[in-house]
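Provenance

Sequences were taken from public entries as deposited. Structures were produced by running a predictor on each sequence independently, with no templates supplied. The record for DUF3570 domain-containing protein from Pseudobowmanella zhangzhouensis is shown for reference.
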Amino acid sequence: MQLTKSSSISLALAAASAQLLSNGAHAEETNQWQFDTAVLYYGEQDRVTAVEGVINAKKDFGDNHIFNGKLVIDGLTGASANGAVPQSTPQTFTRPSGKGAYTVAAGEVPLDDTFHDTRVQASAQWTQPLSDTLTGSIGTNISAEYDYFSVSVNGSLAKDFNRKNTNLSAGLSLAYDTIKPEGGLPVPFSSQYVFGGFNDDEFEDQDDNGIDDDRDEYDATRAKSSDSKTTVDLLFGITQVINRRLLVQANYGYSQVDGYLTDPFKMVSVVDNQGLLQQNLYENRPDSRTKHSIFVQGKYAFDHAVADVSYRFATDDWKIDSHTIDTRLRVNLGDGHYIQPHLRFYQQSAAEFYRPFLNDGEALPAYVSADYRIGEMDTYTVGLKYGMPLNGGDELAFRLEYYQQSPKNAGFDAPGDLANLDLYPAVKALIFQVSYHF
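Predicted structure for DUF3570 domain-containing protein:
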């Protein structure tokens, strides 16, 4: 089950196009293998918990012919919002697999507490000069989960000008993803069928328990077992050395996604004029999405610190506009020790088809989703990183951050009982990471 899919492809292209933006932490020239490892903990309050391990290997085989390989393994557990609205009475939902049901207490946001997944991701990148002023890079990425598989390839070119003070870059990536959730993909706008609390063992012996009819009702809400999507990402960038202290970068990104973009685990509630639940329908999203983004970044070197400030604007044809401001200040404490405060703000508008609920009796829209992640929201992250040198040029670092996501009402009037319930609860999380470079 996917928690979220960030645009890792675009980030990889951005890194490839920003050769002049190395922070210098491990920029020493060496033909030896270099390794960066990290273990990260991400824990939301009463929701999802993730633990991730990363190892990145890099080697220069001579003349800047560089190989980068990365392996990521992470595990997700906890409770994930299913999109339904809270009610003043307990609610029962069928599990996404169709095996059993779970009950949510009165007044609580409906969360599926069986959320769990393991992801393994491997990537490889080869970068080399094609001439004195031209560098090329190609790579591939494979990611596998229990019900999700993704494969991608990418390539980029970077050209130096102005005595290597100016760098122009262009990158392309292609990705193909498949999703095959246990229980299949739901029929859009079909009403969720609630079994009544059968567990996995009871489903394995349906004849003895007499629940064949229930299973048939559930299967009628299934469209097919799997689907797929394709993604094309383009990135164009310029990096400029202004003087010995200041470096700036600007990127334009374009992304086209086609295929299955609906979240099969999400639903939207239909309520009457008293706010009482009538039924829960499976969501339906468009089968294409076009995104544009502009990114600008500046790095300034003080005598004993480096400031890193960036801004990103993104927009898409789902009418989601977002703004991101990210700031870091690396302060050198002497003898290789440093601290790095981090502050990030993010704001987005709601998708044009986002609805926290539907009103009974109204005509169904062509597309609808109650997923708060595509609704209006503000988020911020505040944290601190501390790094220290070890023998032989190794480095150990610790990072602790607090993250808060605050969904907003995008102009919807809550009827009846819903006006007294929290439809937009904040999501709070702690992030802790230990990293080791050797």
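Residues 360 and 436 are 56 Å apart (CA to CA).
The chain has a mean pLDDT of 89.
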